[in-house]
Write a structure and sequence with these properties.
With 251 residues, the chain is α/β, with parallel strands linked by helices. It has 8 helices and 6 strands, in the order αβαβαβαβαββααα. The chain has a 6-stranded mixed sheet with strand order 3-2-1-4-6-5, sandwiched between helices. α5 crosses α8.
Amino acid sequence: MRGLTKIEEKINSKIGKAVADYGLIKDKDRILVAVSGGKDSLTLLSFLKKIQKWAPVNFQIFAAHIRTDFHCGSYVHNNTLTGMFNEMAIEHRFEDIKVLDGKGKTTCFWCSWNKRKALFKIAQDLGCNKLALGHHKDDIAETMLMNLFCKGEISTMNPYQEMFKGKLIIIRPLCYVEENLIKEFSKESGFFQQLCECRFGQNSKRIYMKTLIKKIEEDIPGTNIKTNIFKSISKIKKDYINLKEESSYIE
C-alpha cells in the first residue's frame, strides 16, 4: 500500500487478516479504543485511524485513557495524550480510578478489573458497541500458557468476544501481530519509550511465560512457537482428549 513503511505494511496486513477472519469491524460500528499510552494501544489506535480512511465500511473511533491512583514519574500525562487525540481528530475521554487499598497495595486482577469496568461505562456513555484492546499475539500465547499451567484450563483472550449478551463486543485487532513488530513501529513513530512500570507486576507469571517462550524459541529454532500456541486453541482433537475432571488419581 502506498505511503506505508515496510513495518507498517506488515502490521497493516496482519490486522487486515484478523479483521477479515473474525469479522472485527463492520459498518456503523462505534469503536472505543482503550489507550494506556503504551506502544500496543498507540499502535492499535494509529492503525485503526489509517484503516478508517480506506475501509469499505464506515465506522467511528473513540479513545479512552484510564489512570489509576498508582503511577510513577514516567507515566504518560493526559495533556500528551490529548495532543495526540486532537491531532488524529479522535473524540476522547479520561477517567481516574482508585485501585490501591488502605496499605497502598493492589493486585493485577483488581487493577485490571476496575480499569475494564471503567471502560465498559465509557463505552456505554458514548454509545459504542465495540471495545478495542491492544493485546497482541505474544499476549495471547502467554495467557494460554498461564491458564494451562496455573489454572489447569485451556483458554486465552479471544480476538472477538461478546459481553453482556452481545451488547458490547471486545475486539483485539492486533491478535496476529507479534510484539517485536509493534516495538519497531513504536520506535519508528516516536512513541513514548519510558513508561510507568507497576511495582506489583515485576515478578508476574506473565513475565515468566514470556521468558519461557523466548527460551523455547532459542532451543528449538525454526519453530513458530507463538503461532502454534495461538492456533492450538482452535485445533483441539477431541478424539484424543477424554479426561474427566478428577484429581483423585493425580499424585
